[in-house]
Amino acid sequence: MFFSSFFKENLIYRVFIKKYKKYFILGAISLIIVDIINIVPPLLIKEVIDTLTSHGSITKILYISGIYILVSLVQGAGRYFWRMYFIGTSFRCDYDLRMAFFKHIETLSHSFFRKYKTGNLMSRATNDLNAVRMAVGPGMLIGLDALFYFFLIPPIVIYLSPKLALYTFLPLLLMPYFAYRIKNVIDKRFRRVQEQFSNISEKAQENISGIRIVKSFNMSNQEERTFSRLCKDFVNKNLSLVIPQSLMGPVFEYITYLGIIILLLAGGNMVLEGTITLGTLIAFQRYISKMVWPMTAVGWCLSLFQRGKASMERVDEIMDIKPEIISSKSAIKNIRPAGKVEFKDLSFRYNKNEDFILRNISLEITPGQKVALIGPVGCGKTTLVNLIPRVLPAGHNKILLDDIDINKIDVRELRSHIGFVSQDTFLFSEKIKNNISFGNPDQFDECKVREYASMSMISNEIDNLPEGYDSYLGERGINLSGGQKQRVSIARALAINPRILIFDDCLSGVDARTEEAIIKNISTEANGRTLIVVTHRIPAIMDFDLIVVLQNGEIIGTGTHQQLSERDGLYKSLYENEVVRESLAEG
User: Fold this and answer.
1) For 466, phi and psi rounded to 5 degrees?
2) 229 close to 147: Cβ distance less than 8 angstroms
3) Model confidence at 1: pLDDT above 50
């Protein structure tokens, strides 16, 4: 039971054999055939030498030479097949792992990305997965090759001379001790190397993404020094890893060479005494020399396997994290919501040890209603709207869509009816038209793309670009202004034709008048959709059906602009300040 459990938890079984058992068997058969054939030449050489020393016939030598050529041809074909089945399949395993890792990352929740940085995840998705591939491909191949040699050669040399075999194989008993000591050191030091590689990836990613900030604050030299320290530490950690890796091969080779020295001394004496023939001694020497490769291979295999094992543990650390937001098997699908959203005594905090961001939120938004969320920075507006499409997890029966608990609705189905534009505008390094049609790429043509771009008042600016809608954007849309990126993001949200539109302070990059014009334009064109807007600019939402005022995570007022501006309170204060700012700007 123990061995069965251990085998199934083994890296090679999990990644390679479990799915590609057929390729493993065919590869192993090819490798066994090659290794069996590879032990034949020394016996043929022995026969030739013994024939020559005993004045045998040339016919026998020609016959042996023909067998040698045939053996070489079969061996070459066998090597082709085991390379295809082992090395080729390792790339299939690599594909499987990368896809599984990517799909899993896509399911993880907001809290996960607060803990793990992008560079760290990139390191695991590239460097660590490559180390796993090397372990289950070349590592397994080398290990099996060495193992077959260990099974095949000892019986032959024992057959040739049991006494000489005992002398020459005695030093091999030192191998397990050195292998055990060195592999543990490799495991610990490789972990440090991978962790440092993650640090380098994180730093590089941060500097590339934030290059404008680095340059504007004239911090290039300091960032270079920091990056240099990380790289030097990475080099030092690699050098400390290279020491045990470099020792393993030579140690095993020296053990083998020690056996060869014993062979020359003891075997030479036995030839002189007539106990064995000269051909037997030469064949013996060839077989012992062949043991140099498996000895070296053991060291190489252990190094690759320990690195792969350490990397797989880093990958498993991510794969073992359960997503907070999942759809149950009985989740509701194929809904056609009218757009009613209701909050029932909702409270929310990101972690149990943190204070509540939202407290006792109760609010009903009717279908087609235009609702604005107003309040000071940090009052919970963004958190509240992120709960609607389940970007953040909400308690059961706290948020309802058309009187259905959103936790009972399939996540994909729920989000397909919500057009969400966040504060943090993100565009892909793709054509502008592909960014706009991102949510529904198979059902879009140029006319629809232009229609939604026009609704978000970005169409004219796109037309003025050299390649128009076919213009490629840089990373995160760097070749567009902040306001342009926001309006392309709005067009992208409109393009999925949602029942609910959520704008989370996504027009901060445009002036107040443009914001007001865009919201009015969308309100007119998107008649019947529920519109929820988070903003700091009151003029843009003065004609909204409902304005909700938040402060310190609580709703402190609701009503129309007319109703709220007549009451003394936060909204009236914010409105008066807005009027003063506009007057100063115009004056």
Assistant:
1) -55, -40
2) no
3) no
Within a 13 Å sphere around the CA of 121, how many CA atoms are in the beta-carbon half? Answer: 16
3-class DSSP assignment, residue 332: strand
Helices (H), 116-219: 118-123, 129-134, 140-160, 162-169, 175-209, 211-216
Dihedral class, residue 15 (left if φ above 0, else alpha if ψ from -120 to 50, else beta): alpha
CA distance 113 to 183: 34
Provide DSSP, 552-573.
TTEEEEEE-HHHHHTSSSHHHH
CA dihedral 329, 334, 337, 342 (to 10 degrees): 0
Confidence (pLDDT) at 7: 38
pLDDT at 8: 43
The DSSP annotation for 389-451 comes to: TTSS---TTSEEETTEEGGGB-HHHHHHTEEEE-SS----SSBHHHHHTTTSGGG--HHHHHH
pLDDT tens digits for range 513-538? 777 788 887 877 767 789 999 988 88
- Which pTM was predicted? 0.74
Q: How far apart are CA 275 and CA 198, in angstroms?
A: 62
> Are 434 and 428 contacting, i.e. CB atoms less than 8 angstroms apart?
yes
Query: Dihedral of CA 487/492/496/498: which sign?
Result: negative
Nearest to 142 by CA among 17, 296, 4: 296
